[in-house]
Design brief:
This protein is mainly β. It is built from 2 helices and 14 strands.
Amino acid sequence: MTAEDPHTVHAQLNYIAPMSERPQFHANDQSLDRLALDRRTVPIRDGRAARDPPSLAREGLQLFECPTQVAEFRDSAEVARLYRAEIRDIILALTGADAVVVTGPPILRFGERSHEAGTRDNSRAARLVHIDVSEKAAADFAKMAAPADGRPIRRTAQHNIWRTFSPPPQDVPLAVCDARTVGPSELVPADANFDRDGSIVRSFEALLLRYSAAHRWLYFSDMRRDEVIVFKRHDTDLQQPHQVAHSAFSDARVPAESVPRASVEMRTVAYWYA
């Protein structure tokens, strides 16, 4: 945090450095990663303090009030019964799409101080600066999730819906990068590997980022469980923000005795018919 701007925190993010081999990272056993990290301390501004708040239509990310009926996100049956429909309805309302499909189960993540970090599949805070899917992976996911009615599709948009269910302040918030400030030359294809017991059970192409001083990082302080950050994973409409880089970071201002961050994220694909 600076004297000039009390709404900005300076924190370390893990970019990717030049490598002679293709980068790989793993959901669970990070000792299997093949990464050369370029650690940079960057300014991350509180989006709540912005005179003109960030939006899905401009930066590709936005904070929304979003109450939920889910009482316990660790209860997979309750989440399946309530949350998938809530998320689908949120994205339908935000986008005006003809159909929205929620893909995969919810992903619960925990800050490193939590005893729950690493106890579930893919449950650690994601510390790499990354974009969830490459062009190829986005096209594959959209095709796999497409509604079964076979109607021709003119546009798809994929979103990540991120919510904390630990009380504020968050010791490990989510940093999101203004999509307008990321250039194609900074994107590095990488294998996102989902491993269990040392074996790769699923893999797809994600994107890591090289550092650029032009990147404009944002976060939202003191998030409540009735708020969500919605951000773009991919959009086939190139007039819209295309994809949003993101990463967990440590907020050194948060007291050590605070409750460790716990969060849940869902991914969706929105479809517009021709």
